[in-house]
Amino acid sequence: MAPKIPPKARLEHSESVTGGAAVDEHEHHPSGPLRWLLTTNHKEIGTLYLIFSLTMFLIGGVMALVIRVELFQPGLQLVRPEFFNQMTTMHGLIMVFGAVMPGFVGLANWMVPLQIGAPDMALPRLNNFSFWLLPVAFLLLLSTLLMPGGGPNFGWTFYAPLSTTYSPPSTTFFILSLHMAGISSILGAINIIATILNLRAPGMRLMDMTLFVWTWLITAFLLIAVMPVLAGVITMMLMDINFGTSFFNAAGGGDPVLFQHLFWFFGHPEVYIMILPAFGIISIIVPTFARKPLFGYASMVYATASIAILSFLVWAHHMFSVGLPLIAELFFMYTTMLIAVPTGVKVFNWITTLFRGSITFETPMLFSLAFIVLFTIGGFSGLMLAIAPADFQYHDTYFVVAHFHYVLVPGAVFSIMAAVYYWLPKWTGHYPDERIGRWHFWLSVIGVNLLFFPMHFAGLAGMPRRIPDYALQFADFNMASSIGGFLFGFSQLLFVWVVIKCVRGGETAPAKAWDGATDLEWSVPSPAPLHTFETPPDLRRVAG
Amino acid sequence: MRKTSVLAALVAGVAGFERNALANEWNMPVGVTEVSRHVYGLHMTIFWICVVIGAVVFSVMFYSLFRYRRSKGAKAANFHEHTTVEIFWTAVPLLILVAMAIPATATLRHMYDATEAELDVMVTGHQWRWHYDYIGEDVNYFSNLATPREQIDGTQAKDANYLLEVDQPLVLPVERKVRLLMTSSDVIHSWWVPDLAVKKDAIPGFVNEAWTRIDEPGIYRGQCAELCGKDHAFMPVVVHAMAQDEFDTWLAERKQEAAAAASGVDRNWTLPELMERGEQVYGSICASCHQPEGQGLPPTFPALANNQALLDDLEHHIDTVVNGVAGTPMPAFSGTLNAVDIAAVITYERNAWGNDTGDIVQPSAIQAQLSP
């Protein structure tokens, strides 16, 4: 059921606990040049994660633009196929593991303790270690581009044996970097679970938590369940490449399809790892700007849990064309179709939250509304892909590329942007510039649709994914996509500008920056002091 | 390339769903088999279901956004749950999905029934070409991309079937159930022809099964659908479907050609003869990795020009081509090229691009290695 504590009481109570001079006594964090390296403060580490995520988003974005320039017209113009394959692979790896996941972890670092009334993450030193693994991992990954034979060129799904027997020598470094990123994710997930389960303010029951905290709790369990599977599969690759084993080498008695089963057993939950926290964010922002409580709080929690459980039962829908037995095809088709039900519940709940609200359209709300529409379009194409006989035609075409970019870009990425616009006043004490924000939003929405919508048609018309050159009937779609790609890509510079501008100054934000906001983070001052909730807010219901 | 403006194309596309003339460019092809028509039907059914649900959901959403703006003085209500409504919108999608799953299941079962085929063709994926073997007919050949390099590099105008044309298509009879057995000699490929609604992965160490029964004679084009390395974009699939009697004639001719090609094994070939044939084989089979001038793409694909280790040891060279090199992309050609082609290509490699060894490898010497 929905939170039972009247929002007002929460805010009043907490304001008296935090803020003020008492906080300053505890400011004994590292200073000087090593401050950011040694910090164990959840807010500083959250900031580091977010800066890292943004940096990777821009690097991965430049790679996407290289792809879009090459695909602007048929023929090979800018790059050779060898390099093109490295760009598609690195773009995928960087966006998934370097931009989207760390983006959500950064938001969790900042907001989970603030939303549950905890002073910090449960394991602060581990938190520092989780973060600093990432820059090392991704520097290593990027450095493979300069190695002999180039970087990974086998797609972000790195199917064996293309990624083992037939891979460039740098693959071993790719494996090491992925191991490091994986360890970072597991440690981060452990920390989030420990924090949520142990450090909630007295009186805050699980069903009182915000949806963002709930979705992250479930996401963290998914991470712990599947990251070790990824670690296992890349270790088997490592053995095949360097130690003469034949896990995935048919000539030695191995099984290339085993790779895909293992990869997608990790990979499908991974997809939901990248979208569940987005559901949480949207479930917070929509009620704030509709000034109405979230409709169906409990069903949202149950839907999230259902999606998480189903995510372990659908992995082979990525493999409909590998020649699974009929009974397996049917099983995975049915389970995949089932995912539409809890996902539909979420969309219906958001829309019913809007119904009879009192709605305003600040930038975070704009991004959230675009999320609902465009993510739903991605969901529809997902439902189409679930139909196995039709999937034989869609599989490995641009239709799939369109589908997963719709759920990941105007889905996951828009939700992160919405969250940044929403919480910037809390982080910096200033409102982000609403005018630039709106420009950023509209250019992004137009760009993202021009970029990805034509891909549906290209795929249906028969264009396979991951090709640097294509037949003439796909030319117009690709030209439109490339123009959209540049529009979307360059619009993100506005985002960088608005964030920098907001950090430097702007309209001062009060503790409760949005009038419709009800969660605990709005009870601490803006900007949030380095240490908050050192004495936890008491949320126990007082009799009478 | 058509010069239609992007906007005009988008507008035409919306109309295109209504008009068949454009449908093929904007939508999944209906295709030329019973299965492909069923698949198209499923595709359109689920598409319209999504359109209707989308129209309802987004209408409510945009109505709410418009009607309940605070700037128009909307006051927020405070309801936040309604069990009946929530059960309703959980159950209704479930029913729609069940309704959708029934025809999908029927089509899938049909697609999986490859029994009672009248012709079997083994399809083998190679980096980066397809190999077709008419099982039991002694006819097998490679199917290579036929688009000239100049068109890809843009120094020549691209023709209509750019990147979708091959030197020798897969020839199939119409109105016969043909079973396609898929495998691969190296990495995973995927054999796909949209008009047949057949897409099946070709996986090393596995033999996958698919089937088709083409209704209309014609030429149907597709591509490799699974990323298989550098030239993934350059290994198209072309199927030429013809009437049964034409097919029989074609098959008989191919059998004769195969016999003629093999008959050259016993005679002595001259250097110019071998060089001429070797250049052809090299161009269609070897050049994609080792490059047209033998310079290779180190470290994955070694150079052949001035490769002393290779030139000093003829036996090693023959062994490499015949048996391949385990643990590298170099495949064994013993099963896919005949003795004449292997002898010719080795001779060519040892005498081209400044490799002036003067070595001549006779087909008879290779034949001895192929059938010991």
UniProtKB/TrEMBL annotation, chain A:
Residues annotated as domain Cytochrome oxidase subunit I profile: 36-540
Top-level taxon in the UniProt lineage: Bacteria
Main location: membrane
Compartments (UniProt record): Cell membrane; Membrane
Region (Disordered): 1-29
Transmembrane segments: 48-69, 89-110, 131-151, 171-199, 211-239, 271-290, 297-316, 322-345, 366-388, 400-424, 436-457, 477-500
Membrane topology, record value: Multi-pass membrane protein
Signal peptide (residue range): none
Catalytic activity line of the entry: 4 Fe(II)-[cytochrome c] + O2 + 8 H(+)(in) = 4 Fe(III)-[cytochrome c] + 2 H2O + 4 H(+)(out)
The protein's Enzyme Commission number: 7.1.1.9
Protein keywords: Cell membrane, Copper, Electron transport, Heme, Iron, Membrane, Metal-binding, Respiratory chain, Translocase, Transmembrane, Transmembrane helix, Transport
Keyword Transport found: yes
First-level EC class: translocase
Pathway: Energy metabolism; oxidative phosphorylation
PANTHER family tied to this protein: CYTOCHROME C OXIDASE SUBUNIT 1
Sequence similarity: Belongs to the heme-copper respiratory oxidase family.
Physiological role: Cytochrome c oxidase is the component of the respiratory chain that catalyzes the reduction of oxygen to water. Subunits 1-3 form the functional core of the enzyme complex. CO I is the catalytic subunit of the enzyme. Electrons originating in cytochrome c are transferred via the copper A center of subunit 2 and heme A of subunit 1 to the bimetallic center formed by heme A3 and copper B.
Protein's UniProt name: Cytochrome c oxidase subunit 1
Species for this entry: Modicisalibacter luteus
Gene for this chain: ctaD
From TrEMBL, chain B:
The UniProt record lists the keyword Secreted: no
Residue ranges annotated for the Cytochrome c domain, each copy included: 273-353
Membrane topology: Multi-pass membrane protein
Limits of the Cytochrome oxidase subunit II transmembrane region profile domain: 20-115
Cofactor(s) listed: Cu cation
NCBIfam families in the record: CoxB
Subcellular location: Cell membrane; Membrane
UniProt organism field: Modicisalibacter luteus
Protein's recorded name: Cytochrome c oxidase subunit 2
Domain Cytochrome oxidase subunit II copper A binding: start-end pairs: 116-253
Keywords for the protein's UniProt record, in alphabetical order: Copper, Electron transport, Heme, Iron, Membrane, Metal-binding, Respiratory chain, Translocase, Transmembrane, Transmembrane helix, Transport
PANTHER family in the cross-refs: CYTOCHROME C OXIDASE SUBUNIT 2, CYTOCHROME C OXIDASE, SUBUNIT II
